[in-house]
Structure formats: C-alpha cells, structure tokens
Write a structure and sequence with these properties.
single chain; about 230 residues; alpha/beta; Rossmann fold; nine-stranded mixed β-sheet; two-stranded antiparallel ribbon; 5 helices; 11 strands
C-alpha cells in the first residue's frame, strides 16, 4: 500500500513547494497540496505544516494560521493517530494550536538565522527510527523565532515522556555554536505524548537531494515509511 501525504499551504508559506517535492521524491506516493481555507483533508498517512511566514508572522508566529479553517481537520488527523510534521513555522503553529507543548520565541541574539546546523536524536520515535544514536545530522535552519521555551514542569514532562526528538549539537568537523538559537536544553524538535506529532525547527526538506549540501533530511521520511 502506497504512502499518502499532504502539505498545507498558508498565505506566506515559502517552503510548501519544497515540502511537496520532498514527499513526492521520497515517498513515491500520492501527495496533496491543501489550501488553508479548505475544510476537509483526504485520508493520508502524513500531513506537513511547512515552513515560511504564515500571514507574515503578524501578531505572533503561527498565531493567525492557527485560526485557519483547515486546522480542525489537522487536529482530527493527529487525534486519529496519523502522522503530523510541523517544520519551522509549522512547529510554531503546532504550539499555537496546543498539539505540542511550549512556545517558540525570539532567537537568543535577536537575529534571523539562515545557516546549516547540526542535530542529533534525543529519544527514539517513529520519526527518527532510521537515525543512529549519536549520529550527527546536518540540516539547515531559517528562523527568527526558533528559541524553544517551556517552564520547568513542562520540561520535566517532556523528558519523562521521552518527547524530545532532536537537540542541537556540534558538527563532527565544525566549530559551530552548539545551541544556535538559545533553546532550552538545546531542544530542536519535540513530539506529543503519543509520538505521532513532531515539530522541528530545522528544514529536512532542504537536505535530501543531490543538489543539497546534505541529504540527512531524507532520514525523517525513511523512518516513517520503514
């Protein structure tokens, strides 16, 4: 049975086409592009909320997108134990609609970050099964509000429930700053308690093809398909 997926496009999304190509190239299955004002979703295995600046990040990143008509269907999709991946702005939207804990605030140095970064998995889930323990992935980021924050109680819950999927780290041959944006405990991505919803700031859809500097992003989709 083929792997079916969908990408939601909001006004201001700028990585939706990247995400569509990512899915078409790696899954070889049926891929749908859904406009944010639609009120129904096809039955698919995975939905991606892509990166970009939905509604120009007006008010707060992801705040206006969280009120889009399609969001009710996105929540139902997650509650049906189907996979949901929020990348960058998609991660911000997932925290706004309450599917993920915490919030994404301004980067530590108050500057937009557009660069390669390095991450490794923290706790295993279905999104990182193909990634070895302590394997360092090179995946780019492009965000202004990527600094993950939560209170101590929430952080302890994320740890106890093994919901921290990825953390920033140093590259094997790099002098890069380990925690690039100031995220609490260098968190780069988290899941919900059921582990079927993942939010991550790095862009795997920009690290999978021959013309990308790294192909490490393909491991996310390969993990789900396997």
């Amino acid at each position: 049975m083929s792997f079916k997926s969908a990408v939601i496009t909001f006004p201001g999304s700028n990585c939706d086409r990247d995400a569509l190509c990512y899915l078409k190239d790696l899954t070889k299955g049926e891929v749908h592009n859904i406009w944010h004002e639609e009120t129904s979703l096809p039955k698919v295995d995975l939905v991606i909320l892509p990166g970009g600046f939905s509604f120009g990040d007006y008010l707060r990143s992801g705040a206006m997108a969280s009120k889009s008509k399609i969001i009710n269907e996105v929540v139902k999709h997650a509650n049906d134990n189907r996979y949901l991946l929020g990348i960058c702005n998609g991660f911000q939207i997932l925290t706004e609609i309450g599917l993920l804990e915490g919030a994404l605030i301004r980067n530590k140095k108050l500057k937009f970050l557009g660069k390669n970064c390095f991450i490794k998995k923290k706790f295993q889930n279905n999104f990182n099964l193909s990634i070895k323990d302590n394997q360092v992935l090179q995946i780019p980021v492009a965000h202004n509000e990527g600094n993950f924050y939560c209170d101590t109680e929430t952080l302890n819950l994320l740890k106890n429930n093994e919901q921290i999927a990825f953390e920033y780290c140093k590259g094997e041959f790099s002098n890069n700053e380990e925690n690039i944006n100031g995220s609490i405990e260098a968190i780069a991505g988290i899941t919900n308690k059921k582990k079927n919803v993942l939010g991550m700031m790095p862009h795997p859809e920009r690290a999978y093809s021959d013309f990308h500097q790294s192909q490490d992003g393909r491991l996310i989709i390969e993990s789900l398909i396997s």
